[in-house]
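Hey, I was hoping to borrow your eyes for a little while. A protein chain has come my way and I'm curious about its shape. Take your time with it, there's no hurry, and the full record follows here:
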Amino acid sequence: MSGPTDIMLRHESIDAAFQDLLSAAQTMQSGLEELIGQLQGMEANAGQYKQAFTEFLNIARSSSSAMHDDMHDGARALDEMNQAMKYADRAAAAGF
């Protein structure tokens, strides 16, 4: 049987996962921005592959934004779920 300490540990784990997800999103965003910066510098020298290179660069740009937004949406949903569970736990505890 789990007690209040077990519940608190689970909430702390979810809080940590939320922070880890935000951190991962920022790290990924920074890495992709660095990649895009390097690709932009190389674009002028792409020669015969310029069209393919430009298309890849455009995909990297749009994917970067989409992945960043998706990770933040996931973190927000995780946090909202955790806050709802905390509220339910407090409400249930108040009933006893």
